[in-house]
Amino acid sequence: MATRPAMNPLAERLAAKSPALWIEVGAPRGVNPAMLLKHLQRLVGHVDAINLTDNALGRVKMSGLVFASLVKARLGIPIVLNVSTRDRNRFALKSDLLGAGAIKIEGVVALAGEKTTPGDPDGGSAVHDLNAYGLLEMIAMLNRGDTGEGKAPLKTLPALYAGAVANPNRPDFDREIQILEMKARAGAGFVITQPIFDAETGRRFLAHTRRLEMHAMLGILPVKRAASARYMQNMVKDLSGARAHLARYADMDETQARAFSIDRNLEIMKELAREAAGFTIMSGGGPSLAIELALEFSKWRKDANL
């Protein structure tokens, strides 16, 4: 199984008894990060890390490395950076990982990235020079100081804590666990899941991450409105196993949907707080509801002495 790189605060935090709290956001679409940084300022002292997506859904955003450096410099919040093999060959991936090590990015999530749609102005030909397993192995190699080029070892070692993604809602759950086992063997020490909508799904997944000695950050997705739930129910294959839960939003107005989502997700997080390494709250179409939920859970975590 994966070993934690020395002196990595993220790895130490996930090993603690108190549940970690991350929020997932995408970098800005343009060149001005001021508004998003202002929103994220509210999370200082409340979240343990920000998980930055990597051109999620095939939509081009500001470089994650650049935005990560701004977050670290201005807010001081640790970063978990998603790195997709879809958009870069192995040379670009290695270069970005060395850059992440240089600015002391705490964690890197290796993933393939969603498929792009032909003809999409933001899209293009997928690269996939490496798969997610190969990227995990590259991270482990660089942490050892080996650049893979037959040259002298790096004098200063990166300390990138490697992670992966998984989907507890997948109908073929056994296959999902087999894939997770391969990612653990390739070097993943933690896993971020697709959103869960009930404690039973989370608990079933956690039983396997404990066996694999992986830290599980369970995905939590607050739902803003019925239209968002309907889209996920009908269009997002990864959430096919959660359709019954998403259907509950069908007759709610936006105020009702937001309140129900906050209450329901808090209930799940509280129930699993002593079992999971923590939770990653996903921002979806915008960070406002995710930030609200993060602040609510942070308050509860403090009041519960966790």
Please count the beta strands (DSSP E, at least 2 residues each).
8
- Largest sheet entry: 8 strands, parallel, barrel
Taking all residues together, what is the mean pLDDT?
91
How many H/I helices? 11
Termini separation: 28 Å
CATH class group: Alpha Beta
Strand content: 5-15%
Describe the structure.
This protein has 306 residues and is α/β, with parallel strands linked by helices. It has a single domain (9-221, 254-303), classed as TIM Barrel (Alpha-Beta Barrel), CATH 3.20.20.220. The protein contains eleven helices and eight strands. It has helices spanning 9-14, 34-41, 64-74, 90-102, 132-143, 173-186, 199-211, 226-235, 243-246, 254-272, 288-303, and strands at residues 20-25, 49-52, 79-84, 107-111, 161-166, 190-195, 215-220, 278-282. The protein has an eight-stranded parallel beta barrel, surrounded by six helices. Helix 4 crosses helix 5 (132-143) and helix 10 runs parallel beside helix 11 (288-303). The chain is globular, with a radius of gyration of 19 Å. The model has no long low-confidence stretch (mean pLDDT 91).
Short structural description:
This protein is an alpha/beta fold. It has helices spanning 9-14, 34-41, 64-74, 90-102, 132-143, 173-186, 199-211, 226-235, 243-246, 254-272, 288-303; strands at residues 20-25, 49-52, 79-84, 107-111, 161-166, 190-195, 215-220, 278-282. The protein is globular.
